[in-house]
Design goal:
283 residues, alpha+beta, Alpha-Beta Plaits, Immunoglobulin-like, four-stranded mixed beta sheet, 17 strands, elongated
Length: 283
């Protein structure tokens, strides 16, 4: 059986908010019987975009994470809803706008905060994967259709095919420790969930300082390598995808006939910019 999945590439999301606007356009003031009641004009963002800034000048990375109902296979809202929330055979989760009335507890059951409470209608609401459009023959939900960079991709495949794509494209889900089995997958999620160590390498030759391209940069902890890279044309380097709060680490920089440099670092929960590292030629 094939099921719907959404793949979002953080490297391609530029915070244009087209998906947010498309969701508003589709649901604000529009009643979809059996699928959703109207979304309020203000307060609700069934599709939202979160921002994370990492590092500091001159090594800064800003990433954007579109978030919405994850349409989990083991959704707490479905269990908590006792029939007011259904999991369709095609993977889509629907909060029944009639049966869920007055059920604020359904909104509170979502660990991703993806269910919104509508005070005026006394109703929990969430993005429906545009199920009413898909059921009428649309090939994609509107967020995918409106994305100008192709950051969003909706596919209807078997669980086996999705498992293969997850490995092949290095896809991740939000908060896997919850074991809810989301059907919204992210590519390049490390830009939101991980940190980096960055800096520049210079070489000093008889008092003349120049950029050190091709320097080997390695981060290690307890004798175990956490990652390595080479500096670029201007001596710049970035070691990305590092786990936060790793603790005491060593950054080692080496380059051909120059004496290597080792710097002690405390890798906490924010990206580190170590500045300029100068290598001196061996005598």
């Amino acid at each position: 059986m094939t099921k719907w999945n959404l793949i979002i590439d953080l490297a391609e999301c530029h915070n244009c908010n087209n998906c947010v606007i498309a969701c508003k356009d589709e649901y604000v003031g529009n009643d979809r019987p059996g699928y959703s009641a109207p979304q309020p004009l203000h307060g609700h963002r069934w599709i939202d975009i979160k921002t994370r800034e990492r590092g500091r000048f001159p090594h800064v990375d800003v990433s954007y994470l579109p978030s919405m109902c994850n349409h989990c296979d083991d959704a707490p809202c479905v269990v908590h809803g006792n029939g007011a929330v259904i999991k369709r055979d095609d993977g889509i989760v629907i909060i029944d706008p009639a049966k869920a009335k007055g059920r604020r507890d359904i909104a509170e059951s979502c660990p991703y905060d993806a269910i919104w409470w509508n005070d005026a209608l006394d109703l929990p609401q969430a993005w429906t994967f545009d199920a009413h459009l898909l059921d009428s023959g649309w090939k994609h939900p509107r967020c995918v259709q409106s994305c100008p960079t192709g950051a969003m991709r909706a596919i209807k495949v078997t669980d086996q095919e999705m498992a293969r794509l997850t490995v092949e494209e290095n896809l991740e889900t939000l908060r896997p420790e919850l074991k809810t089995k989301p059907r919204v997958y992210y590519k390049n999620l490390f830009r939101f969930s991980k940190i980096f160590v960055a800096g520049e390498v210079l070489m000093n030759v008889n008092g003349t300082v120049d950029c050190a391209a091709g320097a080997q940069v390695t981060l290690s902890s307890g004798g175990k390598s956490l990652g390595s890279t080479q500096s670029g044309t201007f001596g710049e380097f970035t070691l990305d995808g590092l786990a936060p709060n790793t603790g005491d680490c060593e950054l080692t920089v080496s380059h051909q006939e120059f004496s290597p440099q080792t710097i002690a670092l405390d890798v906490a929960d924010e990206s580190l910019v170590v500045g300029t590292i100068v290598l001196n030629r061996n005598r």
